[in-house]
Amino acid sequence: LIDVEILESELAEVEQGRRATAVFSAYPGETFQGKIVAVNPLIDPERKTRRATVLLPNTRRRLLPGMHGTVKLEAKVYHNRLLVPREAVVLRDQRPVVFIARKDAEGNWRAVWSYVDLGLQNETYVEIVNSRFGLKAGEPVIVSNHYTMVHDARIRIVE
């Protein structure tokens, strides 16, 4: 059993039964798979963390008390959400904007500026909960060279 500390800001994402992956400096390049078996209901007011217990199989007795490691916990899974890379979101007049790449009537690519409402976020993706111009799943969004871009600008797609 391994005790891990969960930041208060991430409490809603972690629950019993979720998978965990651990790495230890004693075994570089090797990962150990387990699951969360308990989440302490109390928050440490000084550290602003909550403790969870992870069960890792240790049949070969390689994991010893006091070893140092890093544990990644599987977060809560959200279905049917529209996500874009963080770098796709820029601020215009203090409001988040995403540029959507769409073809016009002549078949030319255009950058459509769309104000968006943001939902959940992590270090990689941002959830779009509302889009002025109806961003749809699978539509390409512009992730670079868009800080000075204007609405309806003709663009060339580079992948």
Set out the fold topology.
Elements: E1 2-7, E2 19-24, E3 31-44, E4 49-55, E5 69-73, E6 83-85, E7 89-92, E8 95-103, E9 109-121, E10 125-131, E11 153-154
Antiparallel strand pairs: 1-4, 2-3, 2-5, 3-4, 6-10, 7-8, 8-9, 9-10, 9-11
Query: How many beta-strand segments?
Result: 11
Q: Could you spell the SSE succession in H and E letters?
A: EEEEEEEEEEE
The span between the termini is: 45 Å
User: How many strands, what sense, and barrel or not for the largest sheet?
Assistant: 6 strands, antiparallel
* Rg (CA only): 22 Å
The CATH superfamily name of the largest domain is Efflux pump adaptor protein, beta barrel domain
> What fraction, in percent, of the residue positions are helical?
under 10%
Provide the low-confidence segments as ranges. none
- Give the count of helical stretches: 0
Question: Architecture of the largest domain in CATH?
Answer: Beta Barrel
How confident overall, as mean pLDDT?
Answer: 91
CATH class of the largest domain: Mainly Beta
How much of the residues is beta strand, in percent? over 45%
Summary of the model, kept short:
This protein has 159 residues and is mainly β.
Task: Give your account of this protein's structure.
This protein is an all-beta fold and 159 residues long. The protein has strands spanning 2-7, 19-24, 31-44, 49-55, 69-73, 83-85, 89-92, 95-103, 109-121, 125-131, 153-154. It folds into two domains: 2-73, Efflux pump adaptor protein, beta barrel domain (Elongation Factor Tu (Ef-tu), domain 3); 83-154, conserved putative lor/sdh protein from methanococcus maripaludis s2 fold. It is built from no helices and eleven strands. Strands 6, 7, 8, 9, 10 and 11 form a six-stranded antiparallel beta sheet that branches. The model has no long low-confidence stretch (mean pLDDT 91).
